[in-house]
Amino acid sequence: MTEKTVSLATQAYDKIKENILNLTYPPGMPLTEAMLATELGMSRSPIRSAIQMLQTEGLIVSDYYKSMTVREITDKDIKELYQIRELLEGAAFRLIFASGRSEEYSYRLEEKIVRMFATAENTYEWEIADTAMHMEIISIFENERINKIYENNLCELIRIGQYSVRNGMLISKTNENLKKMIEYMRKGDVKQSFAILKADHFEIGRDSALKAKRYLPPSKLR
């Protein structure tokens, strides 16, 4: 491919991926090269390259007849990802306090939460800020393997998080609760601070995502 083609393919990849992550192209939506080329105002060549990259990442899947759809999110996906988050972040919280770094991390997390407040009107941007906050929590491990577990699942976490917000998880309430979490961290209260994270981000988040997936058709998730 020429440099121009590579650039267009990258542009196509970035835009299609963003549309998948922000649910403009919801899980299960059929895709065609022609439709994507028309929407993005490009020829099929860069679109085809972008599709190949997104198929490699697992965001676009093809069936036996080579028809393409945005990868579905299953109940199993939701339950497993929230289980991973609760297990890892529970251990991370305990380590933050055990290592005497709760005050330090309260400020580090507060920086991420400020961004969450700033993006409260845009669910997609808020979810990106939210994932950054969760990545900050697990940074206490200084473990690249754990980081990769999160990085490999970020696309699904962002999509699932929007399911949660669309069916019960209130951004404004979650943001305010996170402020309380920071206060408890500065008081050295690991039990109360993690209880807030667990209730809002794992239990309500998981249950709302499952409910949204079960009862809302794709058109309502756009």
Automatic annotation (TrEMBL):
Pfam (any one): FCD
Family matches, as PROSITE patterns: HTH_GNTR
InterPro entries: GntR_C, TF_FadR/GntR_C, Tscrpt_reg_HTH_GntR, WH-like_DNA-bd_sf, WH_DNA-bd_sf
Record key words, sorted: DNA-binding, Transcription, Transcription regulation
Residue span(s) of domain HTH gntR-type: 6-73
GO terms for MF: DNA binding; DNA-binding transcription factor activity
Transmembrane parts of this sequence: none
SMART domains the UniProt entry points to: HTH_GNTR
UniProt cross-references to PANTHER family, sorted A to Z: TRANSCRIPTIONAL REGULATOR, GNTR FAMILY (PTHR43537), UXU OPERON TRANSCRIPTIONAL REGULATOR (PTHR43537:SF5)
Protein name: GntR family transcriptional regulator
Taxonomic source organism: Sporofaciens musculi
